[in-house]
Design a protein that fits this description.
The protein is globular and about 95 Å long. By secondary structure, the protein is mostly beta strands. Helix content is 5%, strand content 58%. The protein folds into 3 domains: 100 residues, Immunoglobulin-like; 131 residues, Beta Complex (Ferric Hydroxamate Uptake Protein, Chain A, domain 1); 677 residues, Maltoporin, Chain A (Beta Barrel). It has 5 helices and 51 strands. The strands form 9 sheets. It has a 22-stranded antiparallel β-barrel. A 5-stranded mixed β-sheet has the order 10-15-16-13-14. The protein has a 4-stranded antiparallel β-sheet with strand order 3-2-5-6, with no helix packed on it. One of its GO terms (cellular component) is cell outer membrane. It comes from Cecembia lonarensis (strain CCUG 58316 / KCTC 22772 / LW9). It is found in: Cell outer membrane. It holds the Pfam family Plug.
């Protein structure tokens, strides 16, 4: 009762103030409905002054504003000041303001002060206006995210998952469950070569994220796009010159938590020979032990220095705005590590159909990554009708890796006091880079009725892995006592080089059909030609200890003490991995665009002619030394966009696309690298061809908000997958990963993408469900009489339907954002979920190797202080492990292997990468 009386009294006292003081709320937008985030809003009277900053949805508010007449003033860079007199009465007031852009004309070039390049609003507008189905990530979103490379960024896009490198960092994009081979990478709209030593896909972790103006992911194609993208394309639009002088710089320090638990292993690269003896002295040179350095193979455990990241972009316009110049540089030096448990797996030879574990490995990897990016873009507006641009870029990614491994083929239960081990140290330097020069022009001809654009591209990718050495020893435990190590035979040292260079020309024409009485109608036609050359060098030397028995602690303490005998002084320059590949692609297309009422139609086709082949230096009479594949593809294309409202689209499209084999995939040779399985080329593998269907509903309630709901269906003939196949027969010979055409595959899915903002808070979420099916013939080893365990073992074929390799059933992203314009605070918590998927396809029934569902949680915090920003970013907060497994239990007698504690499955690999922390500062200045 006392509480009720108190509330009545409190309400009575508050009543007069409630009627005298009210809430004033409002929003501020530009004429494109883009919220002007950060606009300064002032409310003034003779007695009171109030100020606010527009939030993420453009809203502002004040509480308890006394009644009276006020002057409302709103200011935002690039817009004319907004002034209005308002009356605040006894009822809540709501004010909706649309501000006018402040544009100025300099000569013949129009400069917009409110240039919104790189904003979320621009990204949403591009998605809305595109002819095909795309997703766009803005520079602003990238800046606020915890991501440092483009590979980190793509995993935030709906329908995209990533494949990781040896250090656990994202590296390749998987679009809609389609393996990385089914998409291509563009820089400023043109394709670039890859430094990958086998394939044509580009490692996205070579590109620093801060150089992007935006990231565009196309999930359907138009006829003016190259046709080898069944999954889609990833376009990196790099920063271009701003309207006024602008400079952005950042500096960061970081550390990986794995270094708190174990040392980082390093080596001296200064004594490393970048050229093999055969390269230095000629192909016929007989190498000696004096030609090989040893100091570079000494391993030192250290506590690494902090990671260092730095970036700078600076740009301006000159000559009255006609000439724009942008320069960017980025340097990243980081220390990564991974702890991996790995099992060598095969089918049980006794016919149970279960996996058999024959070897267990513990691996500790230490990788120093040096990443550098340099890019510049110059654009010149000749006049209103003609413009030219030149883009130059140089991207470098160097990995310096030490891998320590302990392996056992025997039972390795901790209770055992006797065991035999193989100890192996690998020292590997990898130098890779992409260099690009692109000259482009845009021209308005015939009074604007005919538009022409062209691109001339010269690009080169390099991969260099010198003196890749493995030092193998055997040892063990006897009666619980560790025994000295002895040197193994046939220790390899390898030199590998690859280059991939392109010369490409694109020419496009667009003819406006002015005589057609439609809002928009044109015909677009054009073509392209690419001449690609790829060269590869492989030179491997093998060494035996001489004498063969050299005991640790007696005959040697480290690698430099071991006495070696060179087994093959001539190297392996006659190996099939020494080859030259080539590819010429000529293409032409025709498409028509018609806007009929509320519907846009795009109809056309593309024709691509391919001449792909290789010539190898193999001396193996059982290998094919040269090969050509010549074919022509007709690729029809149709899309429509229905616009019932200005903020709603309904899309539908069909396109045919192909997927060409990688350059080394058709070379008849084996790359017996020291990874889990060797790789063998297949001269019989052919291109895959797919029919692709898309529909999507799009709603853009505000310029930075969206709701997208879509579905897709793909039918792929002869999809290319890497199958684990024995070299000689199903049961004998080494197992190799071999590219193989696998019948007909179906792939369909549903996508949802959502973003919404509430003043200081925002949410971004997307989800993709993907279902694919592919039926192939597999083998199983069974008893001739299943009821008689003594009956003969036989091989039997069986059909099995499974998902496509690399396709995850569920992919989800969730980002929670907080942005306080008044205090300058930005906080983001971002989660990525990737469902299970097949990593390796087995030739045996039910023995495919799957990756377990993976969740990564990242966090970022930023605080603005004038032109400066300080920030903290944390990746992999949950220290989520990466696991591979087989969906069958192992053979019953193998009960005490580590990690094998699940009765219904067999663990093949478990890897941990730990958390990464970064702190840094960012500086921004522009003269607008």
């Amino acid at each position: 009762m006392k509480r009720i009386i108190f509330l009545i009294i409190l309400s009575s006292l508050a009543g007069p103030f409630a009627f005298a003081q009210v809430q004033v709320r409002g929003t501020v937008f530009d004429d494109n409905k883009e919220p002007l985030i950060g606009a300064v809003v002032l409310l003034k009277s003779a007695a009171n002054n109030y100020n606010a900053v527009a939030g993420l949805d453009g809203s502002f508010s004040w509480q308890n504003v006394p009644s009276g007449t006020y002057s409302l003033e709103i200011n935002f860079i690039g817009f004319k000041p907004y002034l209005e007199s308002i009356e605040v009465s006894n009822t809540p007031a709501r004010i909706n303001v649309v501000m006018e852009e402040d544009s100025q004309v300099l000569g013949e070039v129009v400069i917009m002060g409110a240039a919104n390049r790189g904003s979320d609003a621009e990204a949403r507008k591009l998605e809305q206006m595109a002819k095909n189905t795309i997703n766009v990530v803005s520079a602003k979103s990238i800046e606020l995210s915890p991501d440092i490379t483009v590979a980190n960024v793509v995993q935030r896009v709906s329908g995209l998952s990533i494949e990781r490198n040896a250090s656990g960092d994202p590296q390749y994009a998987i679009v809609r469950g389609m393996d990385k081979r089914y998409n291509y990478t563009l820089v400023n709209g043109v394709k670039i070569p890859s430094p990958d030593n086998r394939n044509r896909y580009v490692p996205l972790d070579i590109f620093p994220a801060q150089m992007l103006e935006r990231l565009e992911v196309a999930k359907s194609l138009t006829p003016d796009m190259e046709g080898d993208a069944i999954g889609g394309s990833v376009n990196l639009v790099m920063k271009s010159a701003p309207d006024e002088f602008e400079i952005n710089a950042d500096f960061q320090l970081g550390y990986n938590a794995i270094h708190f638990n174990r040392p980082f292993y390093s080596y001296d690269r200064s004594t490393e020979n970048r050229l093999s003896p055969g390269e230095r002295f000629g192909r016929r040179y007989e190498a000696t032990m004096d030609d090989f350095s040893t100091r570079n193979l000494l391993i030192n455990p250290i506590n690494p220095l902090p990671d260092i990241f730095g970036g700078l972009t600076i740009g301006d316009r000159f000559m009255g705005g006609k000439l724009g110049v942008m320069f960017g540089a980025s340097v990243q030096n980081s220390f990564r590590g991974a702890d991996r448990d790995w099992y060598k797996i095969d089918v049980d030879p006794l016919g149970t159909g279960r996996p058999s574990l024959s070897s267990y490995q513990e691996r500790q990897t230490s990788i120093q990554q040096f990443r550098m990016g340099l890019h510049s873009k110059v654009d010149y507006q000749v006049n209103r009708n003609h413009s030219l641009s030149l883009y130059l870029a140089d991207f470098t990614l160097n990995d310096f890796e030490v891998r320590e491994m302990i392996s056992s083929d025997r039972d390795i239960s901790p209770d055992n006091i006797n065991a035999t081990y193989l100890f192996q140290t690998r020292v590997r330097s990898t130098y890779s880079g992409i260099r690009n020069a692109t000259l482009q022009g845009k021209h308005n001809l015939m009074g604007g009725q005919l538009l022409m654009d062209w691109s001339a591209l010269a690009s080169r990718a390099d991969f260099d892995r010198p003196d890749n050495a493995i030092f193998s020893r055997n040892g063990g435990v006897e009666n619980g006592i560790e025994m000295p190590q002895n040197i193994e035979r046939r220790n390899p040292r390898r030199w590998e080089k690859h280059f991939d260079q392109d010369f490409t020309l694109h020419l496009n024409f667009l003819y406006n059909l002015d005589f057609v009485n439609l809002p928009s109608a044109y015909v677009k036609f054009g073509g392209m030609f690419r001449d690609k050359e790829r060269g590869a060098l492989f030179n491997r030397y093998r060494f035996d200890p001489n004498p063969s028995f050299q005991v640790q602690g007696v005959d040697w303490d480290d690698f430099t003490d071991v006495r070696w005998e060179l087994l093959n002084p001539s190297g392996t320059l006659g190996h099939a991995l020494n080859y030259n590949a080539f590819e010429q692609i000529g293409a032409y297309y025709l498409m028509t665009h018609l806007e009929v009422g509320k519907v846009d139609f795009n109809v056309g086709a593309r024709v691509e002619h391919t001449n792909q082949g290789y010539v190898s230096r193999t001396t193996n009479q059982f290998e094919i030394p040269e090969l050509n594949q010549i074919y022509t593809d007709f690729l029809p294309n149709f899309s429509m966009k229905y616009k019932p409202k200005s903020d709603v689209n309904l899309r539908g499209s069909y396109y045919k696309a192909i997927n060409r084999p990688g350059y080394f995939e058709i070379v008849d040779g084996i790359s017996d690298e020291d990874d889990e399985f060797p790789f063998k080329g297949n001269p019989d593998v052919t291109r895959a061809i797919a029919d692709n269907f898309d529909i999507r509903y799009e709603y853009f309630p505000r310029a930075n908000e969206q709701f997208l709901l879509g579905a897709f269906y793909k039918k792929i003939e002869d999809p290319i997958e890497l199958l684990l196949i024995r070299q000689t027969s199903l049961t004998t010979g080494p197992r190799n990963l071999t590219p193989t055409n696998s019948g007909t595959a179906l792939n369909w899915g549903i996508e949802m993408d959502f973003s919404k903002f509430f003043n200081k808070f925002g949410i971004r979420a997307n989800y993709t469900f993907t279902n694919s099916s592919l039926t192939t013939i597999k083998s199983e080893r069974v008893r001739e009489n299943p009821d008689d365990e003594s009956s003969q073992l036989i091989l039997r074929e069986a059909s099995q339907t499974r998902p496509l390799q690399g396709q995850a059933d569920h992919i989800g992203n969730l980002s929670l954002l907080y942005k306080n314009q008044t205090t300058g605070t930005d906080i983001q918590l971002a989660a990525v979920y990737t469902g299970e998927r097949i990593e390796i396809v087995s030739p045996w029934l039910d023995l495919d190797i799957w990756s377990r569902p993976f969740t990564q949680l990242d966090f970022s915090y930023e605080q603005r202080l004038g032109n400066w920003v300080v920030f903290l970013k944390v990746n992999n907060l949950l220290n989520s492990p990466y696991e591979l497994f087989v969906k069958k239990p192992r053979k019953t007698e193998q009960l005490d292997f580590p990690l094998q504690d699940s009765p219904g499955e067999t663990i093949v690999q478990r890897e941990q990468f730990w958390q990464s922390f970064r702190v840094g500062v960012r500086f921004k200045f522009n003269s607008i």
